[in-house]
Amino acid sequence: MNTRNRRKLDLLTLADWSAELIEQTVALGLEIKAHPERYAEAMLRRTLIMIFEKPSLRTRVSFETGVTQMGGHAIHYDMSSSPLGAGKENLADTAATLSRYVDVIMARLFDHAAIEALARYATVPVINGLTNYAHPTQALADLMTIREKKRRWRGVRLAYFGDSRNNMTHSLLFGCARVGMDMTVACPADDAYRPDPKVLRQAERIAARTGARLQVTADPARAARGADVVYTDSWMSYHIPQEQRAERLKALAPYRVDAALMKRAAKEAIFMNCLPAQRGMEQTAEVIDGPQSVVFDQAENRLHIHKAILLKVLRLA
User: Fold this and answer.
1) Catalytic annotation on 264?
2) What pLDDT score was predicted for residue 85?
3) Does the active-site annotation cover 138?
C-alpha cells in the first residue's frame, strides 16, 4: 500500500483536473473498454475502500466490479452503521487510519466540505463518488460516452434541461468548459433551480481559455435547437424532501424532455440521463426508451471510466 503523500492525485471536481488529464483518462477508459484483458492484473494486491453516506447502485457496483476485474479488492463501508456515521470518529482520524490500510479511497457523501477534509487528511488518493456539489466520476463517464458517440468534443453542444442547481449540472459545466465543448443549461429563472453562481463563474473563467460557450436560459425550445446532446437528470434527487414534489413538478414541467423537444435538436442528437430516471417526469418513456437514447451505454461506461480513474490516481497508467 502507498502511505506516502508524494504527488498525490485526488478527484474532487473536474475544475481541479486539466484538459490533458481528462483527455488521458477518457482515452484510457475507451482503451480499457476495448481491451479489458490487458488490465486484468492492473490493480493486483491493491485495495479500494468505498465509503457510502448516500445510497448507490451504479457507483458501488461499477467501482467494486472494476476493481475486481483488475485483480484488486474493494471494501464497502456503510456510514449508517459505522462510528464515523454516528459521530464517534472524526474525518481526520478516519482518513489517517484508512491511509495506513488501503491504496485509494472513494467516498459518496452529502457535504462537499467532507470530501475535501477527507482528501486533506488522507495520504492516499481520494475520489469523489458524489457530493451535493459535484459528481465528477459521472461527468467523466458522460464525456467518454460523448467522445464514443460523436468522436469529438469541440464543435459539439450539450443542452441540459431541468433542475440545474445540482451536482450533475455543476460537473458538466466544469467538464464541458475544460474540454472546449459548448453547453446550454435550460432551467427556471428562479435561483433555486439555476446553477450555483460560483460554479458558473468558475466554469466561465475556464471556458474563456478553452473557447467553450456556456449559456443559461429559461427557454427550453431555444436550448434544444440544434443541440447534439440532450441531457436531463432526476427532479427528485435523494436529498430533496417529498413535500417539495408538487411545487418542483409544476416549476420543471416545461423542461421535460419529450419527442417534440427532441425534434428541435440536431437530427443525430443523442439523449442522456445519468440515472435513476422516472418516465413521465424529467423525460417521457418514448424518449428514454427510443432510438436516440444512450442511457445504458452511458451507465456501462461508468465501469470503464472508473477503472481508468483508479489507474490514473494510483499512477498505474
Assistant:
1) no
2) 62
3) yes
41 vs 79, more confident: 41
Q: Which DSSP state fits 153?
A: S
232 grid coordinates: 436531463
What is the pLDDT of the chain when averaged over all its residues?
A: 95
Q: Which one of 147, 170, 248, 302 is the catalytic residue?
A: 302
Report residue 147 as a C-alpha cell: 467522445
* Whether 93 is catalytic: no
CATH code linked to domain 14-135+302-313: 3.40.50.1370
pLDDT of residue 1: 43
Annotation says 302 is catalytic: yes
Task: Exactly one of 163, 194, 233, 306 is catalytic; name it.
Answer: 233
> Torsions phi, psi of 255, nearest 5?
-105, 10
- For CATH 3.40.50.1370, list the domain ranges present in the chain: 14-135+302-313, 138-298
Question: Considering the chain, what percentage of its residues have pLDDT values greater than 90?
Answer: 90
What is the CATH architecture of 138-298? 3-Layer(aba) Sandwich (3.40)
Helix, strand or coil, per DSSP, at residue 185: strand
Is the predicted pLDDT of residue 79 greater than 90, yes or no? Answer: no
Q: Look up the pTM and report it.
A: 0.95
pLDDT of residue 86: 57
| Ramachandran area for residue 280 (φ above 0: left; ψ -120 to 50: alpha; else beta) | left
- Helix or strand (DSSP H, E) at 313: helix 295-313
7 flagged as catalytic: no
Find the catalytic residue in 46, 58, 112, 135. Answer: 135
pLDDT of residue 7: 80
pLDDT for 13-30, tens place per residue? 999 999 999 999 999 999
Which candidate in 58, 112, 274, 298 is catalytic? 274
* Catalytically annotated residue among 112, 138, 187, 304: 138
Active-site residue among 10, 58, 103, 108?
108
Q: Is 108 among the catalytic positions?
A: yes
Given this model, what pLDDT does residue 183 score?
A: 98
Q: In which order are the strands placed within the sheet that holds 126-130? A: 73-78, 47-52, 104-108, 126-130
